[in-house]
């Protein structure tokens, strides 16, 4: 499964890349606006930090097919590297998706809330579909199950489209969709860190260090090997 950061904060991206296996960055207009920064400089800065081989997903601000296509071409030429244009699922979005795929520009169809939305986006040529897990839970729906069924539906229909699940509140949500074969997840840097946290891990590390110190004091392995 691919791990993707859902942020436009360059400092947080840089920190996460230093420590974690990060496969890319996703953004949307809301995330971009929170940085209150020069947009061209911001997305160029993100590309410089993540390099050309990690994915960078940037969402269109246009709503008609022709304008979405134009904006996608401009963005791809500007940021370069492994680029995906994020397009909300609408009739114009699907039209733009089909056209962009013929042009060789990769597409992430976003704001997915139903299984049929995902399948239609896949048939239109989307490389990724992005269902929102916790937002579905918030409207008394089962977000995890929707993602599980999307994964199954794409597989049974022999679609190459991958699932990039978004919007999480708990690690359990991530765990359950990963068991189902979800291809990628995107999350905030803060939430990313919770994936490796467990109090028993910290207790175990403390025990290891206490036992070592009882035997060797403050000396480390490198001290003993001199």
Structure description:
It is a single chain. 54% of the residues lie in helices and 17% in strands. It has an eight-stranded parallel barrel with strand order 1-2-3-4-5-6-7-8, surrounded by six helices. It starts with a strand and ends with a helix. The model has no long low-confidence stretch (mean pLDDT 95). The protein is an alpha/beta fold. α4 packs across α5 (91-102). The chain contains twelve helices and eight strands. It has helices at residues 10-19, 29-34, 39-50, 65-79, 91-102, 115-124, 133-138, 143-156, 171-179, 189-194, 199-216, 221-224, and strands spanning 2-6, 24-26, 55-59, 83-88, 106-112, 128-131, 162-165, 184-187.
Compute the separation of the termini in Å: 42 Å
Low-confidence parts lasting 5 or more residues at pLDDT below 50? none
Rg measurement, Å:
21 Å
Helix/strand-derived category reads: alpha/beta
Major sheet details: 8 strands, parallel, barrel
What's the β-strand tally? Answer: 8
Side-by-side strand order of the widest sheet:
1-2-3-4-5-6-7-8
Sheet-strand content, in percent, reads 15-25%
Report the mean per-residue pLDDT as an integer: 95
Element-level helix/strand string: EHEHHEHEHEHEHHEHEHHH
Question: What's the overall geometry?
Answer: globular
- Roughly how much helix do the residues carry, as a percent range? 40-55%
Number of helices: 12
